[in-house]
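hey so u asked for the seq, here:
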Amino acid sequence: MRQIFVSFHHHDEYEVSVFCRRYAQFFDEIRTLGISEEGDEYADKINSGDTDYVMRKIREDYLAGTTCTVVLIGKCTWARRYIDWEIAATLRNNKDNPRSGLIAVQLPSAAENGWTTLPPRLAKNVIRQDGNDVGYARFYAPPPSDGTLATWVDAAIERRDSMEPIEGSTSDLRVNSSPCE
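ran it, structure tokens below
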């Protein structure tokens, strides 16, 4: 059963909605959470300034039951603190709510413009050695065919069950978003 959580920057919302519609047939559920530029949506919904509590609630209330988080890479994805928090929550592992697989997929507009900057927590887990991907996470260009994304998600789920993320992947959360230029 494939249930994915899609993490994205709000500037890419239209492209993300197209992405979700295109790939919906391959997944039992695609979960997203829009992020408002005006406020701290998670903090507002969860009603706490305690980052540990907010992280636990993200995992329990938004990511619970998902098997993989797909981070959609656009121009400013790397800059949002909530994307960092979603990645950290994805990588947290506990008895009641195990960690998920993790992949990054470049949006078509990012590919056209050469935008490849990954959020730092994700980049730490995308590791290449001798030309081979060996890390917990993977970074892909836009899928060349519709079924490819499902194959990537399945591989991420297998890695989730056979390897660990880089140590420190769930600590030192980003405090603020960065400006995107």
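The longest helix spans residues 148-162. The two ends are 39 Å apart (CA to CA).
lmk if thats what u needed
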